[in-house]
Automatic annotation (TrEMBL):
Comp. bias intervals (Low complexity): 544-554
SMART domains named in the record: S_TKc (SM00220)
GO molecular function: ATP binding; protein serine/threonine kinase activity
Gene3D superfamilies named in the record: Transferase(Phosphotransferase) domain 1
Annotated InterPro entries: Kinase-like_dom_sf, Prot_kinase_dom
UniProt-listed PANTHER family: OVARIAN-SPECIFIC SERINE/THREONINE-PROTEIN KINASE LOK-RELATED, SERINE_THREONINE-PROTEIN KINASE CHK2
Pfam (any one): Pkinase
Cellular component terms (Gene Ontology): cytoplasm; nucleus
Name of the protein described by the UniProt record: Protein kinase domain-containing protein
Residues annotated as transmembrane: none
Region (Disordered): 418-487, 494-513, 521-564
A single GO BP: mitotic DNA damage checkpoint signaling
Length: 646
């Protein structure tokens, strides 16, 4: 500070300002304004940050477009540097651009501001100092009069890094992780400092969460809570160039960079800035001309080695032909027309652009040495003009067509060509006439395309199938088949009996028991006599194999024999007054405890399938398959009605 003629003053000199409310407040500092100075009191900055900021401002004192430091403030009790004072300027660059949002800056004023920004960056990088926190807030604008050209100054080196080994060793402060803020990386020992200086100009870093639009893919965080140390080294000077390119974008277009992307959407922002192809796609959509795109391509590249240095960009920008082209393009935003922009670009591009054959050789890349061969963006008007010129030339070169003297002739009232004699126009379509016989007395019928087979046309009729009546029979009661599966059958449904099968009342069968025959004779002779029971007759059920529902399981034969002491068939009265469960227990040996889930046949004494009847006239019984609840319910009902033998 003494070498740079910077005074060191006690805190009591500015006690009245420090005790009042702050005029501005940042994360690391409290700011107070005087008439000609700005007082900055350190708030949360660590010792390493304070040393780096003060050393950077002192090294850059009296340099072009760098904020001028005036004094250092120390505390009398602790003898610690607690702040500094700097020269006061009118406003920040952000406030200046907002002030001219309606009364826009001219293209020359924008060019003047951008050149000053590049000069300040050249001064900083020449001394091996990377700012690492460039934004529109850290550039100050000083204007004595609104009509004068604004002067720009770079301030706030709180996150700066020395990437020259001599300065890094000179201003290193020993510190541990407890004395560092969240995103700060600093060597904690001399051994780490030796490794740190060996890797310079590349340094270790963490993701940067401030001003995400101005951060490249190397330091852009992956998530809001991403504070882990990066697994690679970064180039701090290249990071400054990338951030400066976004600020330049905002200056000459008056919009935030990367339109359509929010700084909170880190995934989309990383996809946009992660590849050069994506960056160029956005530039094609937003830039007013080819020179503006080429200008930003020198800043905005995904890889740090592809970005130009501040000195190279400044040297390219100070060329008069480049400035003329850029000012013409930027004037489009200030109310100019696109025709004027391309007219100005065509003036600079005096030499014709050679069209390269894409199949044989590649197009030459844009370079600084060939500014006159830059491709000019063609408009629709230019393309239409070139097309019109080509048509006019082709018309002039075409030979005159000689008209033939005689082109058509008329033969038999039909217009024909003179050379070939073929009638002109489309030939007439002949109508289909009816074919007649030789005597033309009878008209023959038109032929059908179908082969005559003698079969009737149309869809064949469906075969006859029995119709199931869904009406329930009155007086029918459900039969409990099992204790676990109760109420299995609530009603008995009517079905029709096929014509091929004999009805229960037909006297066709020979081996019918006497009680059934007496029952039939009584119904034939005494039809007028009332039935013994007032209840209606049960429905007639068909037990043929063809009427079995398709959803049931296949019939498995489980032969069950009847005991000789038991009756061969049950009563044939219209409605049996005996409980069907009791009859089955007494006749067959079936009981409700034998469930259908076990799928077991009831074992009765005797060999299966052999009749045990003492008298030879007893009818052989064929047992039905007891495989599911539906079959057993039907069998119980038929057996209770005495129709099982039929």
């Amino acid at each position: 500070a003494c070498e740079k003629n910077v005074d060191i003053v006690p805190m009591s000199k500015y006690g009245t300002y420090i005790k009042r409310n702050t005029d501005a407040e940042g994360y690391f500092k409290h700011v107070y304004f005087t008439s000609d100075k700005v007082i900055q009191v350190f708030r949360r900055s660590t010792a390493a940050q304070r040393v780096v900021e003060i050393a950077s401002l002192l090294a850059l004192k009296d340099k072009n477009h760098i904020g001028c430091i005036k004094e250092l403030i120390y505390d009398e009790t602790t003898e610690e540097i607690i702040g500094l004072t700097m020269e006061r300027y009118n406003m920040t660059l952000k406030q200046y651009l907002k002030l001219h949002s309606r009364h826009r800056l001219s293209a020359k004023q924008r060019m003047h501001i951008i050149i000053q920004m590049l000069k300040s960056m050249c001064e900083s990088h020449r001394l091996g100092i990377a700012h690492r926190d460039l934004s529109s807030v850290n550039f100050m604008i000083d204007t004595k009069n609104m009509d004068d050209e604004p002067q720009l100054y770079l301030i706030d080196f709180g996150k700066a890094v020395f990437y020259s080994p001599i300065a890094a060793k000179k201003w290193w402060v020993r510190s541990d992780d407890a004395n560092l803020y969240l995103d700060e990386v600093n060597p904690s020992s001399k051994q780490e400092l030796a490794v740190w200086c060996k890797n310079l100009p590349y340094v270790m870093a963490r993701p940067d969460h401030g001003y995400r639009f101005y951060r490249s893919i190397q330091t852009l965080p992956r998530a809001n809570k991403d504070h882990e140390l990066l697994p690679y080294l970064i180039d701090p000077a290249a990071e400054d160039i990338y951030s400066l390119g976004n600020i330049v974008w905002k200056i000459f277009l008056d919009i935030e960079p990367w339109p359509g992307v929010f700084d909170t959407d880190l995934k989309k922002l990383r996809e946009t800035v992660g590849k050069d192809a994506n960056i160029d796609k956005v530039l094609d959509q937003t830039m007013p001309g080819p020179y503006s795109k080429l200008f930003l391509q020198k800043f905005l590249r995904a890889q740090p080695q592809d970005r130009n240095s501040a000195v190279e960009i400044l040297f390219w920008l100070e060329r008069p032909d480049i400035q003329t082209a850029l000012i013409a393009e930027w004037s489009l935003k200030g109310g100019g027309s696109r025709k004027a922009v391309y007219k100005a670009v065509e003036i600079t591009a005096t030499l014709p652009v050679k069209a390269a054959n894409l199949t044989k050789q590649k197009v030459k890349p844009l370079t600084d040495q060939e500014p006159n061969e830059l491709p000019v963006k063609r408009t629709k008007q230019a393309e239409a003009k070139n097309l019109l010129v080509k048509k006019i030339k082709s018309i002039e070169t075409k030979p005159e067509i000689k008209k033939s003297e005689v082109k058509y002739t008329v033969k038999d009232g039909i217009k024909c060509y003179a050379k070939s004699g073929i009638p002109t126009g489309r030939p007439r379509r002949t109508s289909l006439s009816r074919k007649t016989t030789e005597d033309k007395s009878q008209i023959s019928k038109p032929s059908y395309p179908y082969v005559k087979t003698g079969k009737p046309r149309g869809r064949p009729k469906k075969p006859y199938s029995p119709v199931i009546n869904t009406t329930t029979a009155k007086g029918s009661t459900p039969v409990d088949d099992d204790d676990d599966n109760s109420n299995l059958l609530e009603s008995v449904k009517h079905t029709t009996i096929k014509q091929d099968e004999p009805k229960p009342t037909d006297k066709v069968q020979k081996d019918v028991p006497d009680n059934i025959r007496s029952f039939e004779q009584s119904h034939d002779t005494k039809l007028s006599t009332p039935l013994p029971s007032p209840k209606p007759l049960p429905p007639a059920l068909c037990m043929s194999s063809s009427s079995r529902p398709p959803s049931l399981s296949p019939q498995h034969v489980h032969p069950v024999q009847l005991d000789s002491s038991q009756s061969t068939c049950l009563s044939m009265s219209p409605v049996s007054h005996v409980d069907p469960t009791e009859q089955l227990v007494t006749s067959v040996g079936w009981s409700p405890e034998i469930g259908s889930k076990k799928r077991k046949a009831v074992k009765i004494s005797g060999d299966p399938g052999v009749s045990q009847a003492d008298d030879g006239d007893k009818l052989k019984k064929q047992c039905l398959a007891v495989t599911d609840e539906f079959d057993r319910a039907l069998y119980n009902i038929l057996q209770s009605l005495g129709l099982d033998s039929v």
